[in-house]
Structure formats: structure tokens, C-alpha cells
Design goal:
The protein has 340 residues and is mainly α. It has one domain. The chain is built from 14 helices and no strands. α1 packs across α13, α3 packs antiparallel against α9 and α5 packs parallel to α8. The radius of gyration is 20 Å and the shape is globular. It starts with a helix and ends with a helix.
């Protein structure tokens, strides 16, 4: 099993650096901007109905595109894997966030969801044949959480911008973060099609169907009127469909195979920074010294996790072939992506 991990590390090192950097840019910047898009989309569209239609359309587009380009027809085993991953990531992870934000201040939800990297490191460690992460990875995770807490501020733990804290509702994104991490780890180590586009499309189709089932059970279609949908909601939905799903989610699934779980999950730290910057640039929100300090702490945690993971990949690849020149994306590349 250790040999398999070494080979996986060597394969990750062989991934084109430009492609990896572009994928990180997508999950860092694009997913950070979807906070604003979701806000507008759910103003007049029921959240689970919106999620179901969004992922079904995006999944169908990706599936057909991959098949037309020659991707092999997926097997039943691959469909089973895609269904599990789609339900865990989309309904379990994304759905928990959508539901929780109806009852808990969004700042607190963002803070809770930031435990995704910790869940992923722990789950990757506890899986059969997993490797215990280095102490510096845990230090990086702690830095990321501390920076995010500083970014949000103590007001997230009080009434906040919405209402008094509902402890039971606040536990939902904790479960959602665990399910997202579980789906990510499961996707990384289970059989799937060679085409990332086909695999992502299958996961979206399965997750979108499950989303619609939840929407129907919850009675959302009975209270929905197409004529009542606002222009802002349409724009938000289209953005989520194209950039959030087709670009961002595809890039994330690719990163789960191309890099380590710790590195792929660092989006949870950078996305809130992107959201704050967009709020300042688009909505005229203030950009305080506390925000800048928090951003520095968060990026420091990201760099520490990335540097540690990169060094581990280099050592594993060297044990596989001492003559191979290992090239992996490092802390400098991640910092460059985060600044774009």
C-alpha cells in the first residue's frame, strides 16, 4: 500500500504545472465569487430546486461533451462511484451550506465550512494505508482557521447580520463539511473514468437528481413561480451554472487526482478572502486592516500546507525513480494564484 502511495505521488508530480495552477485559480477565485452569485440566485428561486437544475444542466453538458470527444461509455461500477460522490459532495456538502444559511449568519457558516481541510487530512490519514500528516500540516490548518476567524470577527458568534445563533442549525454545516471531505477522499481513491470531464458530469447528474428529489420532498416546486424569478436571480443562476459548476467543480475534481487532499482543500481558506475583496470592489464594503492581516495569516497557512505536501511528493517520487526531475506546484505558485 505504501508503494501505491509513492506511485500516486509520482503521478501527481508529473502533472503539467500550468494545468494545476489554472485549476487552483479556478477553485480559489471562481468559487470565491459564487458566494455573491448564490445570494442573488436564491432570492427568487428555491435553493434546492436551483441546485438540482443547475447541476443537472451542467452535468448533462459535461457528459455529452466528453462522450462526443471519444470518452468510453462508463461502467456500472463507475456510475455507482459517481452517485456516491455526487450525493456526498453536492447534496451533503453544498446542500448543508444552502440550508444552514437560511437559519445561521453566513459568516458563521463560512467559518464552520473552513474545517473541510482538517476533515480531509484526518480522513486521508485514517483510510486504509493512509499516512500520518506531518506536524507542520496541522500547524498550517490551525493558521488557516485562526486567520478565517480573524477575518469574520467575533460578531459572527453573536446575533450577527441575521438572527440569534441556532446551535442545531449550526451543526448542519459541520456535518456537511464532513460529507464534502468524505466524498472528496472517496473520489480520489475509487475507480472512475479516465476523462475528468466525464467523471465530473456523472457526479453532477447524480447529485442534481438527488437535489431535485430533496426539493420535491420539501415541497419547493409547489411554491415556485417562473414568472416571479428576478433578473438578478437569473444572472446569478447562469453564473453558478457556467463558472461555479462547469469551471470550478471540474477543476476541483481534477485537483483531487493531480495533487494532495491537503492542497486541494485550501480553497476553503482563500474563498472567503475572494468574497471579501469582491464585496469591497462590487458592493462598496470596507476593506479594513483586520481583513488584510487575516488574509496574510490565511495565506501563510496555505503556503505551509502546500510546501509540506510538495516536499513529501518530491521525496516519494525520488524513491520511485532517483533520476526523475520532480516538478510540483509549490507555495510560490499557490501564492501567485491567490493574488490574481
Amino acid at each position: 500500500m505504501r508503494r501505491d502511495d509513492d506511485r500516486a505521488s509520482a503521478r501527481r508530480a508529473a502533472e503539467p504545472r500550468g494545468r494545476v495552477v489554472a485549476a487552483f485559480a479556478a477553485v480559489y477565485v471562481v468559487w470565491g465569487s459564487t458566494y455573491l452569485a448564490i445570494r442573488y440566485a436564491v432570492e427568487t428561486i428555491p435553493p434546492f430546486l436551483m441546485g438540482g437544475v443547475r447541476f443537472l444542466l451542467a452535468g448533462l453538458a459535461l457528459y455529452l461533451w466528453a462522450r462526443l470527444r471519444g470518452a468510453a461509455r462508463p461502467t456500472r461500477e463507475q456510475w455507482n462511484t459517481a452517485t456516491v460522490v455526487g450525493v456526498l459532495l453536492l447534496v451533503g456538502g453544498n446542500g448543508a451550506v444552502i440550508w444552514a444559511e437560511q437559519h445561521v449568519a453566513s459568516g458563521l457558516v463560512a467559518l464552520i465550512v473552513a474545517i473541510v481541510p482538517l476533515w480531509m487530512v484526518l480522513l486521508d490519514w485514517l483510510r486504509p494505508g493512509g499516512t500520518r500528516p506531518r506536524a507542520s500540516v496541522f500547524v498550517g490548518l490551525t493558521l488557516g482557521l485562526a486567520g478565517l476567524a480573524l477575518l469574520i470577527g467575533p460578531d459572527a458568534l453573536t446575533a450577527g447580520s441575521r438572527r440569534t445563533l441556532d446551535v442545531r442549525a449550526a451543526l448542519v454545516p459541520v456535518l456537511g463539511a464532513f460529507l464534502w471531505a468524505l466524498g472528496s477522499i472517496y473520489s480520489k481513491y475509487t475507480p472512475r473514468p479516465a476523462s475528468s470531464q466525464l467523471a465530473t458530469g456523472m457526479q453532477m447528474l447524480a447529485g442534481g437528481a438527488a437535489f431535485l428529489l430533496v426539493s420535491i420532498v420539501g415541497g419547493e416546486p409547489r411554491h415556485f413561480s417562473v414568472g416571479a424569478v428576478s433578473t438578478a436571480s437569473i444572472v446569478g443562476f447562469v453564473y453558478l451554472l457556467t463558472f461555479g459548476s462547469l469551471v470550478g467543480f471540474t477543476a476541483y475534481i481534477y485537483l483531487l487526482r493531480a495533487t494532495t487532499p491537503a492542497k486541494a482543500s485550501t480553497y476553503a481558506y482563500v474563498n472567503p478572502i475572494v468574497a471579501v475583496i469582491l464585496g469591497w470592489a462590487v458592493a462598496g464594503e470596507s476593506l479594513t486592516a483586520r481583513t488584510l492581516i487575516a488574509a496574510a495569516v490565511i495565506l501563510g497557512g496555505v503556503a505551509l500546507i502546500t510546501l509540506t505536501s510538495s516536499n513529501g511528493a518530491r521525496h516519494a517520487a525520488a524513491s520511485e525513480d532517483d533520476t526523475r526531475d520532480v516538478g510540483v506546484v509549490g507555495a510560490a505558485e499557490i501564492a501567485e494564484v491567490a493574488e490574481r
